[in-house]
Amino acid sequence: MISITSVSHQYDTGQAIKFADWQVNNSEQWLLLGQSGSGKTTLLHILTGLLKPTAGEIKINDTDLYTLSSKKLDEFRGQHIGIVFQKPHLIKSLNITENLMLAQSFAGLATNKNRIEEVLASLDMAHKKNAYPQELSQGQLQRVTIARAVINKPTLLIADEPTSSLDDKNAEAVLTLLKEQSELNKATLVVATHDKRVKDVFNLTYSLA
Amino acid sequence: MSPFKISWKNIWSKPLNAALNILLIAFGTAILTVLLLASTQIEDKLDKNSKDIDLVVGAKGSPLQLILSSIYYIDFPTGNIPMKEAQKLMKNPFVKRAVPLALGDNYNGVRIVGTDSNYISLYGLKTESGKFWQADLEATIGANVAKEQNLKVGDTFFGGHGLTEMKDEHKDHAYKVVGILAPQQNVTDNLILTGIGSVWKMHGDEGETDEHHDHEGETDHAHDEDREFTSLLIQYRSPMAVAMFPMMVNQTTNLQAASPAQESTRLFSLIGVGIDTLQWFAVLIMFIAAISVFVNLYNSLKERSYDLAIMRTLGASKGKLFSLIILEGLILTLIGTIIGVVLGHSILYLIGNYQESSQAKMNGLLFIKEEFYLLVAGLFIGMVASIIPAIQAYRSNISKILAKN
Mean of the pLDDT values across residues A179-204? Predict the structure, then answer.
């Protein structure tokens, strides 16, 4: 479970932003709604341990993120947080299986090919396991980045604008995949977006002004 | 996934860049390897061949030429010296051992050296088969000569006048091979040794009628007083002689004394200028290689900043990214240096194969411990070239990089 308490952040430019407290329970599925420039990405980065806020406390599974050392925080992120970015980005020099193995070993876990096969199969991508990123379509790449985000069975699965560049049909497909995968891996899901199409799919919403 | 595999795969995702870097490093290392091996081997050969010889006495002329002809058998002799005068020097109390040499003939380019039994003890020679020469016209040949000229014990051959070509053969007298030397790893492997009397005989000591005697100082008479040597190899009895004996020879006789140690040093300092130049050239290439590795890593870092940020989100620590970049630099330079060392040995091996002068033949299969330093230097260059990109990767602000995209 995730809690955000009295978090505020001041940018290099001097502009400050305050975030309302937020409690997320296990296996809930949330929408993080906000216009661009409202601090969505900032909050996501704070939530994933990528950006230390000026003040406040973030707890994931009772671990206070920013009390961890830099190295421990990286490892914690690798093991407990899966992130899906707007643009699917894989390491070009490695094939799909190797990209997923990379996620396992960077998180400090043993590489497990069975788990990789399992996740790829659940996303209908098993036939592409030896392909290189440049051989895949945009939609296929999106699936692989979702696979990479859930490979280590994270506590928290975060998606940053996963639908903004997709048409209605594909946007729906990606959301379905995210919801399916978070249920399958018993992960809490947070989808950040300004996309109105996404609204109806979630009943829990955290809005940024 | 091991960091090595990640770095390795990334290097080869741009094969042309990688190949260019490796090529530059390999060239620099190859030149350095060749120089290192060649100068070590030349120095080694110079030392080995003049090991126990303190002084060479011969006819006046260039001291370097005297040393080259009497110790390394490369250049032409300076001329001849009268036996009477030489014998006076041989009896000098400073002299422990004096070996007379009579040069001037060859067999298919292999020099025939007339000398006495002191030569055997001076070089510590042993025979592999047969025996040492005793009677006139008996010859004991070096190990390489036996191999290359296909001579066995019992074979006979005619010597030719001069040092390089078989122009005027001494058809009257045939040499007989009575022994073959064990390989000595010095100049004697490539010589034909015989008694000094044999050489005199060739040049008409007795019964000569129509032979050529066209070089100066050669004697046609059988009288001791008129007989000549080419030079004397001298071993001192005491260190005192170093100061006294050469001066005495140069001032009181018509002869010239030259010290192999001094002349080798002089020779080497002459070659050394060329070696130094090439060395700096190689260092320059290595420097360019280092810059090329640096530029390559630095540029690819810009393209890869998003990759690296993703790696951080997957749990890789800053230190991990740092080591990945360093590893790439090290892999590139290590491959380059290893290829360079192998290339250097192959080049030297080829040079050795095509070299005519067997006295200074290079061996490409010889490894020396200094090459280990080349590897270390290669790794050091890889480290230096990749340290700045690695620090940048370490310091990069992933939140900013991710937010930009």
Answer: 87
pLDDT at A99 over 90: yes
Asked if pLDDT for residue B341 goes beyond 90, the answer is yes
Average pLDDT of the segment spanning A178-188: 90
Averaged confidence pLDDT in chain B:
85
pLDDT tens figures, A151-163: 999 999 999 888 8
- Mark whether B144 and B286 lie in a shared domain: no
User: Touching check for B361 and chain A: CB below 8 Å?
Assistant: no
Same-domain check for residues B320 and B228: no
Q: What is the pLDDT of residues B182-240, one digit of tens each?
A: 988 888 888 999 998 888 888 765 443 333 444 444 444 445 557 888 999 999 988 88
**CB nearest to A87's CB, from B9, B10, B405:** B405
Domain housing B368? 3-46+274-404
Q: Does any CB of chain B come closer than 8 Å to the CB of residue A69? A: no
Pairing type for strands B110-115 and B138-141 reads: unpaired
Please identify which residue in the block is written with the tokens 């990123």.
Answer: A133
Determine, yes or no, domain membership for B264: no
Question: Domain residues of chain A, as ranges?
Answer: 2-88+149-207
Residue B177 lies in a domain: yes
d(C-alpha B228, C-alpha A8), whole Å: 106
Domain boundary among B198, B228, B258: B258
My answer on whether B250 and B342 are in the same domain is: no
Are B91 and B72 within one domain? yes
Highest-confidence range of A186-200, B34-48, B166-180, by mean pLDDT? A186-200
Q: Which residues of B touch A91 (CB under 8 A)?
A: 6, 10, 307, 310-311
Last residue of a domain, one of B223, B258, B293: B258
Assess whether B17 and B149 both reside in one domain. no
Find chain B residues with C-beta within 8 A of A78's C-beta. Answer: 314-316
A65 and A73 Cβ atoms separated by less than 8 Å: yes
B212 shares a domain with B92: yes
| Shortest CA distance from B305: residue in chain A | A91
Measured between CA atoms, the residue of chain B closest to residue A70 is: B317
State how far Cα A69 lies from the chain centre. 21
Query: In whole angstroms, what is the distance from residue B287 CA to residue B24 CA?
Result: 9
Chain A: nearest CA to B5, how far in angstroms? 10
Distance CA B300, CA B397 (A): 17
Both B215 and B283 in one domain: the answer is no
- Whether the CB-CB separation of B117 and B156 falls below 8 Å is answered with no
B303 close to A (CB below 8 A): no
Q: What is the CATH number of domain A2-88+149-207?
A: 3.40.50.300
Instruction: Determine contact: A132 vs chain B, CB below 8 A.
Output: no
DSSP code of residue A127: G
Which residues, at least 6 apart from B338, have a Cβ–Cβ distance to it below 8 Å? Answer: B375
Q: Could you identify the residue written with the tokens 């002799």?
A: B77
pLDDT score recorded for residue B216: 41
In a domain, B369, yes or no: yes
- Inter-chain residue contact A102 with B315, CB threshold 8 Å: no
Contacts (Cβ under 8 Å, ≥6 apart) of B328: B7, B10, B11, B297, B386
Task: Compute the nearest-CA separation of B18 from chain A (Å).
Answer: 14
In tens, the pLDDT along B103-143 reads: 988 888 889 999 998 899 888 889 998 899 988 889 999 99
- B266 falls within a domain: no
Q: What percent of chain B has pLDDT over 70?
A: 92
Total domains present in chain B: 2
Residue A127 CA, chain-centre distance (Å), reads 24
Instruction: Please indicate, yes or no, whether residues B209 and B290 belong to a single structural domain of this protein.
Output: no
- B402 vs A85: CB contact, 8 Å cut-off? yes
